[in-house]
Amino acid sequence: MARAIMLQGTSSNVGKSVLAAALCRIFYRAGYRVAPFKSQNMALNSGATPDGGEMGRAQLVQAYAAGVQPRVEMNPVLLKPTAHARSQVILLGRPVGNLGAREYHGHFNQELWQHVEAAYATLAREFEVIVIEGAGSPAEVNLKAREIANMRVAKMAGAPVLLVADIDRGGALAAIVGTLELLDPDERELVAGLIINKFRGDLDLLQPALDFLERKTGKPVLGVIPFLAHGLPEEDSVVLEQAAGRPTAAGEVEIAVIKIPCIANFTDFDALEREVGVNLRYVEDKEALGQPDLIILPGSKNTIGDLLWLRQRGLEEAIKDLVGRGTPVVGICGGYQMLGQEIADPGHVETDHDGIAGLGLLPVRTVFQPTKATNLVQGQVTGTGPFLGPLQGLEVKGYEIHMGASYLVAGQPAFKITRRGNKPVDIDDGALSPDGLIWGTYIHGIWDNDPFRHQVLATLRARRGLPARESGLDFTADQERRFDALATVVARHLDLKRLAAIMGLERPLAGDSLGA
Questions:
Q1: Alpha helices of 52-92 — where are they, by DSSP H?
Q2: CB under 8 Å, gap of 24 or more: what pairs does 83-92 form?
Q3: Within a 13 Å sphere around the CA of 458, how many CA atoms are in the beta-carbon half?
Q4: Could you give the count of Cα atoms lying within 13 Å of 14 in the half-sphere of its Cβ?
Q5: Helices (H), 96-227
Q6: In this predicted model, what pLDDT tens digit does every residue of 133-150 receive, in sequence order?
Q7: Is a pLDDT exceeding 60 seen at residue 362?
């Protein structure tokens, strides 16, 4: 049976997901067969597994950090919030319904526990180490009796718990002491250590507080992790709210992503954001839109609701005005659906609306369906025009996650899907405006394809009259470098010898292989 360690937080967004990824890479580099696990995740950033299941983006990232293929057992329950305090429930990679918070926490999540236990047992048989991530806080007293994500999981797995607090937001010591105080005695006993995360400053000045914390709680502080600009894919759109836009410098291409309320899979744009010479901004109103070189409409978990929001904010009018002046627009998944002529929802899969007119910028009609497409895909560029024309025939990879089907009513597709999972297919995807300046696709991760991204950015630079810039970004290699750099920093600031003892590991964690 696998050894396990669990990260729980004093609240959401304390950095558990990133620390879990770091631990996965630390164990992997120490020679352990390691897997991540999060029983219940609430996030709009998700992805597809090789066998076509859907799981949270954070656990996908952690699996890659662990050097293993992602699988739905690593995140058996995924909640994807929609409108009106409801969420789509994904169980072992497949949607099983849309529920309100009262209904879900009242009884439905208890029915899922057996699946959580089975998923963990499967991983525990196949791996040596399991890095478990909790959800929110274990001290939410209104939910604690029926939760399936924190202390109940720790008890099931026999996992010691490391309690993580975010010192950057302030009140970290009080959050730790208060959390421990609200736990039951047997739960408090499971907490084997404390981690202070996102620290900026002089550790010597903090030391008296750490000494007090250990005396007050009786729990050792295993590490003080510095504030890290890790650049790994994020789980929660709260990071977009915290990120302030910056003015575009001379020689930069400016890309505006419309930050719709139910934005999903904004990790699609990580590769663009890492490119030198690109300023990628998230905008919520027409004043902030400005005059970018490219507008992107991202994925959405509530396409009709987000399209109505777009109209109410005056962004539809602003986008169409810029289109009239030659600004290119790209739509990904839900954004692609918005660009079409009509979105029909006869079965009320998403909202109470029977349908809604789209932006009318692409010759596409979308019909929502109760079945969900979740696939890893490969394909080719087939579109024409200034952006896709130079890329015709280029092989691209990505994934699909969508509820609707879109049908061309005129014109040509932008891509052709040639493989879904391991199955060869021949399916047209996306659409293209007659001038080639507007296009859309269901392929998430399209920007992660280096040649594709480099050529589109080269075209944008040429349209602006900017000098050509040689892009050296290999996105996959950059991801691996970031995993290793993250693991090295965390290893240097974490008591790995003590961690190994807490877990009862037979092989040490410290050593040159960790960069420690």
A1: 57-65
A2: 83/262, 83/302, 83/305, 83/351, 87/42, 88/301, 90/46, 90/54, 90/55, 91/115, 92/53, 92/119
A3: 15
A4: 29
A5: 101-103, 109-126, 151-157, 172-182, 185-190, 203-217
A6: 999 899 888 888 888 899
A7: yes
Under the banding of pLDDT at 50, 70 and 90, the label for residue 357 is very high
Q: Is 293 left (phi over 0), alpha (psi -120 to 50) or beta?
A: alpha
Whether 262 is a known active-site residue: answer no
User: Which secondary-structure segment (H or E) carries 399?
Assistant: strand 395-408
The 10 Å Cβ neighbour count of residue 230 is 17
148/31 Cα distance (integer angstroms) = 31
CB atoms near residue 324 (< 10 Å) = 8
Model's pTM, two decimal places? 0.86
State the CB neighbour count (10 A cutoff) for residue 13: 17
Least Cα distance to 493 among 225, 156, 235, 166 occurs for 225
- The CA distances from residue 17 to 28, 156, 354, 461, in Å, are 16, 20, 38, 36
AA identity, residue 492: R
**What structural domains and CATH numbers belong to the chain?**
3-232+480-503 (3.40.50.300), 252-466 (3.40.50.880)
H/E segment holding residue 240: helix 238-242
Residue 333 annotated in active site: yes
101-105, 174-178, 384-388, 392-396: range with lowest mean pLDDT: 101-105
Identified catalytic residue from 24, 262, 402, 444: 444
pLDDT confidence of residue 508: 81
Which pair of tokens denotes residue 217?
Answer: 């709680």
Structure tokens belonging to residue 235: 């789980």
| Catalytic-role residue among 24, 262, 333, 493 | 333
In the prediction, which pLDDT does 512 show? Answer: 42
